[in-house]
Structures are given as C-alpha cells and as structure tokens.
Amino acid sequence: DAKTTQPTSMDCAEGRAANLPCNHSTISGNEYVYWYRQIHSQGPQYIIHGLKNNETNEMASLIITEDRKSSTLILPHATLRDTAVYYCIVSYFGNEKLTFGTGTRLTIIP
Amino acid sequence: DVKVTQSSRYLVKRTGEKVFLECVQDMDHENMFWYRQDPGLGLRLIYFSYDVKMKEKGDIPEGYSVSREKKERFSLILESASTNQTSMYLCASSFTGQGTYNEQFFGPGTRLTVL
User: Fold this and answer.
1) Which one of A34, A91, A100, A102 would you mutate to disrupt binding with B, by most B Cβ within 10 Å of its Cβ?
2) pLDDT one-digit tens code per residue, A16-55
3) Cβ–Cβ < 8 Å for B4, B93
4) E strands along A27-98, which residues?
5) B26 vs A: CB within 8 A
6) pLDDT in tens, B17-57
7) Which of A26, A98, B24, B54 could cross-link to A2 by cystine, CB 3.0-4.6 Å?
8) pLDDT band at A2, cuts 50/70/90?
9) Which class for A13: exposed (0-12), middle (13-18), buried (19 or more C-beta within 10 A)?
C-alpha cells in the first residue's frame, strides 16, 4: 500500500471548516483513499473514502487532486466533538488490511 | 447498531503470565482484527481472521497468537506477557462484501499493563 504523510497536529476554530491534508504521492491507479478518526478513549471510526472523484457524506467531504497525489478531508462546520486524531489511509479496494499511520491530531478551539 | 465489545477496558498482568484478550461482535462479520496502539507509532495490525479458524499475520505478530473458534469471537493470546507488550489493544470487525466498501468497526480498546 502507498505511504501517506499528514501533519502531526492542527487547530481549527469552532464553526469554521476544518481542512485536513494528506499526501500520497506514490498512490497507484486502483488504490483508494480512506479516512478514519479516533476520538479520545474510543476506537477509530470510518468517515469517508474515494478513488478519484470528490465525495461527500453526512460527516465530511473528500477532495482528491486530479493527479491523485494528495487529498483533503473537509469538516464543513467543525464542532468541539470533532476534536480527534484523523487517519488518512491508502489501500486497494477490498484489501482488508489497513495501515494506520500516526494521523493528524485536530483540536477544535471554542 | 454494530457493537464490538472487548472483555476489559483495563488489565494489569505480571511478566510471564498468559493473557487472553477477548473480542465479540454482534453483526455476523466475517473479518476480525487485532491492533495495538502505541504513542508515536499509531495503530499496528497484529493478526486478522477472515473466517472461523482462519487467521493471517499482520505487521507485528511476534509474541502473539489468536483463536477464532466462533464467528463472533476473536481472542488475542499473549503466551508469556512481557513489559514491551504494555499497550492499548483494539479489536475491529468488518464484512467481506462485494462491490461496496466494508468499513471496520472498532471496540473501545483494552489498556494492558504488564509489570
């Protein structure tokens, strides 16, 4: 699976959009980008995934660049409950083995 | 709601003890996983199982074994616990589906301390 690079930590003001970047320059053509998050004292939780088109669900939006070498997870109106570690993972669809890195610690500031 | 439960939230054991960590899921998932999580290292896959009695090594299987005798239950075994196995252990499960992404559902974790 391709390797991902994420900033160690980020802050965002409550109510603003939180934009979390992820670099995956070695991604191959049929690898997907997955995002999970882990709120303190809980297990990780799936957020969203995509291949090359932008995706949106009730939790977030995922923007993947045209060359697919990077992506951004967007939480449109961040709340204090969005404070968590966010993991960007690249893997082949159907590959059950996910490699979680160290993620980005997002802190939402009141 | 999918529920993945782990037998203990906190566990303290002594070096050399045999330790069992139990995980149960109630969604009839085929796949089950054991991870450990350490500061600065993220989550690392220890073992996973894609069916009853089937198992596959993850990235860090050394010092661990697993057992899956029933579909809903996946056990992680530390044959002889050592202090470097002090960690947070997370269990997860997922479907093996066709055509759609099957997210992993995680339990709350077991914080194991080996003295």
Assistant:
1) A100
2) 999 999 999 999 888 999 999 999 989 999 999 999 989 9
3) yes
4) 31-38, 45-50, 55-56, 61-64, 70-75, 84-92
5) no
6) 999 999 999 999 999 999 999 998 889 999 999 999 999 99
7) A26
8) low
9) exposed
With CB atoms and an 8 Å threshold, state whether A32 touches B43: no
Tokens of A5: 């690079």
Helix, strand and coil content of chain A, in percent to the nearest 5, comes to 5, 50, 50
Q: DSSP assignment of B5-46, as one string?
A: EES-SEEEE-TT--EEEEEEESS--SEEEEEEEETTTEEEEE
